Amino acid sequence: MKILPTSPRERLLVKVMAGVVGLLVVLLAVHAMSGGKAAPLSTAAPSGPIQAPKPAPSAPDETDQGNPNVPEFTGVDPFVPLVTPAPSPVETTEAPPPTQAQTGSTTVVNGKSLQLVGLFMDNGVEKAQVAVDGVTYQAAPGDTFADDFVLVSIADPCANISWQTSTFTLCLTQTTGTGS
User: Fold this and answer.
1) Which is nearest to 113 in space by CA: 131, 128, 139?
2) Class of domain 101-175
3) What is the pTM of this model?
4) Is there a cis peptide before residue 87, judged by omega within 30 degrees of 0?
5) Which pLDDT tens digit goes with each residue over 97-136?
6) What is the arrangement of strands in the sheet containing 112-122, beginning at the earlier edge strand?
7) Among 5, 68, 135, 172, which residue is least crowded by beta carbons within 10 Å?
8) Which residues contact 112 (CB under 8 A, 6 or more apart)?
């Protein structure tokens, strides 16, 4: 036995009732997913860090029986990083003062005056101090300094520097002072 709506009015009534039943099912599902509690009035996040409430000191009760090994749980903001990287220190390594005075050779390349000021080790990397028109740069082999010069290599007491297609060598010379 088939019971089907035959008139357009009965079909419309079935469609409306099916819509009402479907809406009720959706509302019940949303209510069940929200834990059965009323929805909060505002869903805006708090502006600023959330401080966990500090528990008031209390006498031990029957649940922990004074056991100091019972962990105390407090709320934690999940968006605050647990570990923050330390800022990288800016190294200002200076060459140790020489036992004897050193002077470096000077050359002029492309209208710029270059002078080898010193050679030193920085964290196990040999570096050169080169003055270009009075501005001192620290460079390791392979580094570009003063925009267009490259420190090719260091062979103490000299440094090989290239500019475009030419390479030249600047050296340090020891000078002896008269003493004071």
Assistant:
1) 131
2) mainly beta
3) 0.41
4) no
5) 444 556 777 888 888 888 888 888 888 889 989 998 888 9
6) 106-109, 112-122, 125-132, 135-139
7) 68
8) 132, 133, 146
